[in-house]
Each structure stands twice: as structure tokens, then as C-alpha cells.
């Protein structure tokens, strides 16, 4: 009898070790403003493929999607939330004009405070404030410290605040102050942060790229030499982000790149949203064979069952706060 118990315990231990050592998969979503709707369509295909997602990384609009996904919202729920928004209302809380000369303005001024959006986002996230590794799916949000014009990877604190920092498009939104940093949109330096996912330990990376297709072959035109407001002006001429963007595109194991031609960061109309989600779904379907290959490598003994992973399964991600947040999801854009 003891011998049988020992064999059973050994088999259980081997099974646990094998499960713990399976390859880890990251989902990376890049920035693109309103074009984030296309990422939601692509995410539906990722879910349908059954590839488990063990970590998520996002920049700007991608941070919104990955942040909500990290706490438990499915692609279908994100679709409903996105379509229900009055985006103009949420994003148009105009900042009071500053009366200081440009040389004395702290950070980079912006037309909108973004507080209304942050508050609504925080309600959906259940007010999460924690190390991001403790979320149902570990999360990273990418921003830029405009004081040093350097990349910052946010991994703790208030989740809604981190997302707000990551999406702070200079001159459109006010700068987010955190510790000694003044944070703006992470897309200025890393709009498709596959490298961040690799540093988190990802063996495979699924990347959803929302950049215009013409950027796929362009290179940076020099190095940055300025800081603060001047750096934003120089960025348009130099585009220091493009070299890293090219490297990250090549390093993704599955690159899903929806056709977003004809749309821009402000394409929030109902018809634009519908078309963008449809284009994301189309791009996701085109990647299904590659996603199936990744799933076989990650879950060789669970073919055909479908899974979101040990940390990404719906059963492991439910919580009282999340349930109450979901109840408010379709009222997210209410005034």
C-alpha cells in the first residue's frame, strides 16, 4: 500500500513539475489610439486558438486592452465595453490653460486632463493597486519619462494610473507625475514592446501591431539630443522609436498586423469601431495556423481542449471586485 502511495505521489510531483516548466506565452499589444479596436478583434482569434496567455504587455491603447485583460475581461467583453463608449465625452475633459511661460511649465502641457477616463477605467479595474505580477495575468505598461526622455516599464501601483501614463500623448494629454518622473505615451520609444515581454521570461510572444503598415520598413533618422517639451518637437523629426519597432516586429513569434489604413488615432465613430474590430478579426483568422503551432508546442498533450492558461483561465480570475466591475462595464461611457 505504501509503495502504491509513493508511486502516486511521484507521478503527481512529475506532473506538477512538467506543468510548471511548460513554455510561457506573452501577449503584446501596441499603441494606436482608436485603432485599439482592431486589437480586440485580433484578440478574439487568440482566445479561439486556445493558446494560454501567461503575461501581457501594452503601450498606450495597448495598455488599456492588456490592463483590462489582465484582470479578467474576455475579448467578447472588451468588444462590448469598447462599442458602448462615448469616447468624445471620456477624453475631452479640457485642462485649464497655464499662465506660465513655456520655459517654466513643468513637463509637457496637454489639452486634456484625462481624469474622467482614468476614473471610469479605475471603476472597471476594481481600483486595483498592487504589484502587477499579482494580477490574474501579470501586466506591464510602457511609458516614457520626458525629463530624461527614457523608457519606463510600469509594474506596480494603481493599474488605471499606469494605463493613463502609458497613453499620455504629448500635447493632447497632461503629463502624469510619478515619483521623480514625468510620464508620457510609451509609443514615443517602444510602441510594440516585445522586448519587455522577453525580459519577463516569455518563451513565445504574440504581438498585435496597430502601426500604419508604411512604418513596417522605416528606420530612425538619428538620435535624440533634447529633453522636455523640446524633445517632443525633435521626436517628430528623428523618430527614435522606429529601429526598436523593427527589431520587436521581427522578434515576435506571431505577429498580427490588422489593416488599419484609412483610420487614425481619433477614429472613434461607431462605424469606424465596427470596421476596425472586423479588420482585427480578419487579421486574427489569418494567423490561426501559426497560433495553432504555438499551442501545440506549449500544450502538446491538450490539443483541441482550449485554454487561457493556469493564470489566464476564467475560473482563476474571478473576484468579487471584478464581478462588480463587469456589472458596470456597459455603463463605462455614461455621463
Write the layout of secondary structure elements.
Elements lengths: L1 H19 L4 E5 L6 H14 L5 E5 L1 H11 L3 H9 L3 H5 L18 E3 L2 H10 L4 E3 L7 E7 L4 E5 L1 E3 H8 L4 E3 L2 E3 L2 E5 L8 H6 L4 E5 L19 H11 L2 H11 L2 E3 L13 H17 L1 H11 L15 H4 L2 H8 L8
Parallel strand pairs: 1-2, 1-11, 2-5, 3-8, 11-12
Antiparallel strand pairs: 4-7, 5-6, 5-10, 9-10
Descriptive keywords:
single chain; 335 residues; alpha/beta; 8-stranded mixed sheet; two-stranded parallel ribbon; 14 helices; 12 strands; 43% helix; 15% strand; disordered C terminus
What report would you give on this structure?
By secondary structure, this protein is an alpha/beta fold. Helix content is 43%, strand content 15%. A hairpin with a 2-residue loop joins strand 9 and strand 10. The chain is globular. The termini are far apart. Mean pLDDT is 84; it is low at 99-105 and 303-335.
Amino acid at each position: 500500500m505504501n509503495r502504491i502511495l509513493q508511486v502516486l505521489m511521484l507521478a503527481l510531483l512529475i506532473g506538477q513539475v512538467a506543468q510548471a516548466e511548460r513554455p510561457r506565452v506573452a501577449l503584446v499589444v501596441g499603441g494606436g489610439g482608436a485603432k485599439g479596436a482592431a486589437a480586440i478583434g485580433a484578440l478574439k482569434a487568440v482566445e479561439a486558438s486556445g493558446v494560454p496567455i501567461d503575461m501581457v504587455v501594452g503601450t498606450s491603447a495597448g495598455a488599456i486592452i492588456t490592463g483590462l485583460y489582465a484582470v479578467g475581461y474576455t475579448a467578447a467583453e472588451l468588444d462590448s465595453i469598447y462599442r458602448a463608449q462615448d469616447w468624445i465625452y471620456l477624453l475631452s475633459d479640457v485642462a485649464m490653460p497655464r499662465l506660465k511661460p513655456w520655459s517654466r511649465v513643468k513637463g509637457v502641457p496637454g489639452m486634456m486632463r484625462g481624469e474622467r477616463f482614468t476614473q471610469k477605467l479605475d471603476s472597471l479595474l476594481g481600483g486595483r493597486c498592487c504589484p502587477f505580477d499579482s494580477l490574474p495575468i501579470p501586466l506591464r505598461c510602457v511609458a516614457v519619462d520626458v525629463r530624461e526622455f527614457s523608457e519606463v516599464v510600469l509594474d506596480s501601483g494603481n493599474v488605471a494610473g499606469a494605463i493613463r501614463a502609458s497613453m499620455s500623448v504629448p500635447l493632447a494629454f497632461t503629463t502624469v507625475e510619478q515619483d521623480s518622473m514625468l510620464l508620457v505615451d510609451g509609443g514615443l520609444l517602444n510602441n510594440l514592446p516585445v522586448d519587455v515581454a522577453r525580459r519577463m521570461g516569455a518563451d513565445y510572444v504574440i504581438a498585435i501591431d496597430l502601426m500604419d503598415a508604411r512604418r513596417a520598413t522605416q528606420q530612425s533618422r538619428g538620435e535624440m539630443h533634447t529633453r522636455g517639451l523640446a524633445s517632443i518637437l525633435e521626436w517628430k523629426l528623428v523618430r527614435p522609436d522606429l529601429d526598436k519597432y523593427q527589431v520587436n516586429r521581427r522578434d515576435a513569434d506571431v505577429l498580427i498586423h490588422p489593416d488599419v489604413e484609412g483610420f487614425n488615432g481619433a477614429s472613434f465613430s461607431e462605424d469606424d469601431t465596427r470596421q476596425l474590430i472586423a479588420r482585427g478579426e480578419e487579421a486574427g483568422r489569418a494567423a490561426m495556423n501559426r497560433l495553432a503551432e504555438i499551442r501545440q508546442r506549449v500544450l502538446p498533450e491538450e490539443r483541441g481542449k482550449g485554454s487561457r492558461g493556469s493564470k489566464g483561465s476564467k475560473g482563476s480570475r474571478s473576484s468579487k471586485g471584478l464581478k462588480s466591475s463587469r456589472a458596470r462595464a456597459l455603463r463605462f461611457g455614461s455621463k
